[in-house]
Each structure stands twice: as structure tokens, then as C-alpha cells.
Design goal:
The structure is a homodimer. By secondary structure, the first copy, chain A, is of the alpha/beta class. The first copy, chain A, has a domain of 226 residues: NAD(P)-binding Rossmann-like Domain (Rossmann fold, 3-Layer(aba) Sandwich), CATH 3.40.50.720. Chain A has twelve helices and twelve strands. The longest helix of chain A is centred in the N-terminal third of the chain and has 22 residues. At the A-B interface, helix 4 and helix 5 of A face helix 4 and helix 5 of B.
């Protein structure tokens, strides 16, 4: 992976994944530009880049804005296209905003790349949610696309766009389908983007972690450092061009076990089973975990950070920086 | 099929399929409302309803407009949601307009139905194009969704929306994936929506029919009367709720054979092989034909009108009404 002097744009650069990726790219000597709209409630946080701000170019702007794209796209070698609206329930409550942020913005970005910089390398962050309720586990990339919420539909549409700009225009695109990603830099105000983020907040406030239903549904998780490593490999290996890869976690755990592990990280931590809210149940995918065999085979990537280690680091981070994440 | 006194809205009601469906519904005693934006170049034509205009309510308006939807949706028993942008090449040249017409408009419609009339029966016209380049023939509904142009992506997104409003909100939805539909009422000005329409024009102007490539690619076709029959059955049979059905033609023919048959319909008719335009080739799906076994089994539908008969009737119609279709 030679990122030295490479010109790299990260859309959604102030969020959990974008900001952690930016740290690694700055370390690797890349010339990094972040584009972020800092839309309230969407996870962008300037505190995430406090240590590297002088070492990069920050562009606060909207990806749907032509002038912004005309400033940011030309001259880049690589775009990590991570911007988006991540909330599933939010997408059902306000589908038109989700359409704007997860569909139109990406079509505008791709059209700008095609016009202004057609050779630019693109890595798009999608989600395993495009597969909907799994017909089999672990999920793999061949599983049908059958999203069951607006957000999943729109992320699938974003994927199809990226695949099309590869097939029709030859643009060098890679798609990663992420699983639940967590770590220092995520939004913890509420559960809109990540229930795990909200659990960190509740834990640090001495409140019990609410588990919907019986808690037996299983999930896998990626610490953000593992996710960033996958992005870096995808962006630098020609084998990844034109490919779609599912990421997956080291462990598959039930939400009950996850809550129990997290509760033990803080004195007095606890959890509680609560009835599944009807609006959440409508779009719940049940149990899910991913087969990451294809990215392991092509890019030699696998998750390395155990949940125990990753959660410990995450909770420690928010214990120190709590105020910077609950006031935004 | 009892459509008598049923309140039926047809979006895209002035196009080929909508207007022919309107004729049948008026005959069946339904209370028909047409919604059409008459957007230039998209196929809506007032001439299509000249004979039934007094028997229906015509609403000229945009499906993206809230006030329009609030006028049209309440009180309907059934919506045939046929509106859209049908041009594949157009969708590549102007993807953002295709997004507006094939995605946002349908999300607005579904949201309005959910809010104002959640029990309304919905039938959505999709396309076999959502399957992209077939991995096997004939296509069936289980074939992967892998669109290869913007239009196919957006129609797939529209399908996912309709499926979601069924799964999450229990709305009674049916999706038909149409194949090439032709007949009296289609746009013939150019090949933007249907090459077959344009061929009718060229034929009547004494010009040769251009065949891209070697003409060996095969397709199937539905005369609009067969398509309308499928819509009527889908809208009236409870078995169809929550289902997706592919339509298909009586015959599978090569474009060369099709051109040759059409050329014989008019004295002096001819055709010519021309090089495949590069922009068309990029999004060409090659050969395609559909297995309509599922709709035959559930709704006892099958195509009845042979190409020879359907093309004859179509060419006769345009010979008589030519001026009303080339001036719009």
C-alpha cells in the first residue's frame, strides 16, 4: 500500500469511518481532503480530526452542490465515498431526505467524476443491509439484494450506480458492504445511526442498555480500525477494481451477550430486555453475520480487533471525550 | 374481474399503456381518473383518449407535486402506477431527470398513499430491464436484479419501494415486469422510448428500418392489449397481492426477423444493418425473452396477440393517425 503523496478525497470525512481513515492516510503521507456537510444529526464531528486538522484540507460543503464537487473532484487520485445517511428508522420516517443523501448525492458525485476526473479510483461504502433478511447465514456477496427499509433500498441504488459507472464508463470502482462498525468517533447521542453508540452513552451515564426483544438475535461487528484497513487495501489493490466485498467481524455474538460484555466494562453497568418497538420491528433483519472470505482471499484482509478489546478502547475513549459527543 | 363503479387512478394515463387501459376500464364501468404531466417527449398524447375523454376525469399535473397527489389519491380504490421515463439512452444522458421521474415521483406517490389512502390497491409497471444482461433465458422472476443502465437502476428502486410499502405497511401491491410493449398510442417520433415505435414511423415514411449490429439478438414483445389484460387481472385478483410477475410475448424473434416482417407490411418497406452506436452498445442487454409461467399460473394470463396481427393493427393505426403522433 503506497499512499505517499497520493491525493485522496474522503466524502463524509468527519464521521466515524472517514475521520479514522483520514488519520491513517495522513500517517501514510497522503494528501488528504475531507468533504463533509456537517449536517446536524448525521455523525460528522470536528473533534474527530482535532489532531490532524493542520495536515489536511477540510471542505465543509454539500456533495449535491455542483460548485463543491467542481472544487473537490479534479486532481484527486482516489475518492473514498463514505458520505451518507445511516439511520434505518430515520429513513422510514423521512424517506425523501434519505433519497437526497444516499441517492442523489452519489449520482451527482459520480457524474462529476465522469466529467471532471474519469480515471479517479473510487471506493464506496455500502452496507450488508442491502441483503435484507438473510435467506442463509453467513451472508455472502451472492445473496440476493432484497432491502427491507428505505435506507437499504437507497444504499443498493448507490451500489448499482457505482457498478454502472464501472461497467458503462470503465471507472475503477470498488464497493465494500460494511457490517456494524464502531469505535472512537462514532455518534453516541442516540440510536439513530448505531444502537452500539447509544449504548456507550447510556453505559457512561449509568443507565441500563435496552435490548429489543429477547436479545437472541446475533450480529457481527467491526472495530473502525479493521474497517479502515479494508478501505485502504481496497483503494490500493488493482484486484479490487470492479469487485464487491462484504466485511465481517471476528466474532458472532447475540445482542444479549454484547450487552452483558459491555455492562461489565463499567462499575454498576446493566442491561434490560424491553419490548421490540413496533416501528423498529417492521424493518428488523433478525440475525445476521457475514462471510468475509472474498476480501480475505483477494486482499488478505480479515478483522483483527476482538470485541472485548475494541469495546474496551471505545468506552475508554468516550469516558475521556464524552462532552464532545453528547453536545452535538 | 369486476371493475364496475370502481374508482381507479392511472398515473401516466396518457401514454401507450395508460390510455389503452383507460379505454378498457371505461368499458368495464370503472370511474377512471388519469394523472399525466404531459412532459414533452415522454409519450403522453391527448389524442390517445379522444374517444373517452368525456367519460373520465383528466388531471394534468406532476406526480411529484403534493397538491396534485392530495387531489388524486384520496377515495381511489386502485392505482395503476404507470408513470415514468422510459428511455434507456436518455437515462444515461440525463440521469438526474430519470431519478426525478422514476424514483422520487414514486416515493412521493407511495408516501401519499400511505398517509391518505393506505388500503388502496396498487399495481406498478416495472420492466424486465431490472434484470440487466440475462444469465439465462428465458428470464424468470428469480433472476438476479443487476440493471446495467440508469433507467434499469431506477425502475429497480421503484420496485423495491413498492415491495417495502407492502412488507412494512401492509399495502396491497403487485408489480408487473413488462417486456417491450407496442401498439396504437405509442410514441413514434424517435427511438427514445421504443425502437419499435420509431420503426413504425420510418416504415410509413418509406425509410429503411435500421438494425443495430447483426440483428441476431432476440426479444419478445407484447401488444398493448395483452399488457392491459395483465394489468386488469393483477388489479382484481387477491392472489396477486405482494407478487412480482414477468410478462412475456407469444413469440421470440430476432430483430432481423422483426424488421423483415415489418418491412413486408408496407409496399417498398426495407431495412438495413447499421453499426451498433457505441452509446447504445454500452447498455445493450443482448438477447432477452421472458418466462411468464408465474402469471399464467396465478392469474391465467398469457399473451394472445401474435406479432403478425399486432404489428398489422399498429401500422394501420399509425397510417391513419400519423399526424397526431409526429407533431408532438
Amino acid at each position: 500500500m503506497n499512499y505517499s503523496q497520493m491525493k485522496v478525497l474522503i466524502t463524509g470525512g468527519l464521521g466515524l469511518i472517514g475521520s479514522n481513515l483520514a488519520h491513517r492516510l495522513v500517517e501514510l503521507g497522503a494528501r488528504v481532503t475531507l468533504l463533509d456537510g456537517l449536517l446536524p444529526g448525521h455523525g460528522g464531528n470536528l473533534w474527530n480530526i482535532r489532531a490532524i486538522k493542520p495536515a489536511l484540507t477540510l471542505h465543509l460543503g454539500d456533495m449535491r452542490d455542483q460548485a463543491t464537487l467542481e472544487t473537490c473532484i479534479p486532481g484527486q487520485d482516489l475518492v473514498f465515498n463514505l458520505a451518507g445517511q445511516g439511520g434505518h428508522l430515520d429513513s422510514m420516517l423521512d424517506p425523501l431526505t434519505d433519497l437526497e443523501l444516499n441517492v442523489r448525492a452519489h449520482l451527482e458525485l459520480l457524474e462529476s467524476c465522469r466529467r471532471l476526473n474519469p480515471a479517479v479510483r473510487l471506493v464506496f461504502s455500502s452496507t450488508r443491509q442491502v441483503h435484507g433478511i438473510p435467506r442463509y447465514l453467513p451472508l455472502n456477496e451472492s445473496h440476493p439484494i432484497q432491502p427491507i427499509d428505505i435506507n437499504g433500498i437507497h444504499k443498493a441504488t448507490g451500489e448499482y450506480y457505482h457498478r454502472l459507472y464501472h461497467s458503462a464508463y470503465g471507472m475503477p470502482v470498488t464497493i465494500l458492504r460494511l457490517t456494524n462498525t464502531y469505535g472512537a468517533g462514532m455518534r453516541i447521542v442516540d440510536a439513530r445511526q448505531s444502537f452500539l453508540g447509544y449504548w456507550v452513552r447510556l453505559l457512561l451515564e449509568g443507565k441500563p442498555l435496552p435490548i429489543f426483544g429477547d436479545g437472541r438475535q446475533v450480529r457481527d461487528f467491526n472495530h473502525v480500525d479493521d474497517c479502515v484497513e479494508a478501505l485502504l487495501r481496497a483503494g490500493s489493490n488493482p484486484l479490487a477494481i470492479g469487485k464487491i466485498y462484504l466485511l465481517g467481524g471476528c466474532e458472532v455474538v447475540s445482542l444479549l451477550d454484547l450487552a452483558s460484555s459491555m455492562a461489565r466494562l463499567v462499575p454498576g453497568g446493566g442491561y434490560a430486555l424491553v419490548p421490540f418497538p413496533v416501528e423498529n420491528k417492521k424493518i428488523d433483519i433478525g440475525s445476521c453475520c457475514n462471510d468475509f472470505g472474498n476480501i480475505k482471499s483477494d486482499l488478505d484482509w480479515e478483522p483483527c480487533i476482538t470485541l472485548a478489546n475494541g469495546l474496551r478502547r471505545t468506552v475508554d475513549y468516550y469516558a475521556e471525550h464524552f462532552a464532545h459527543y453528547v453536545s452535538v
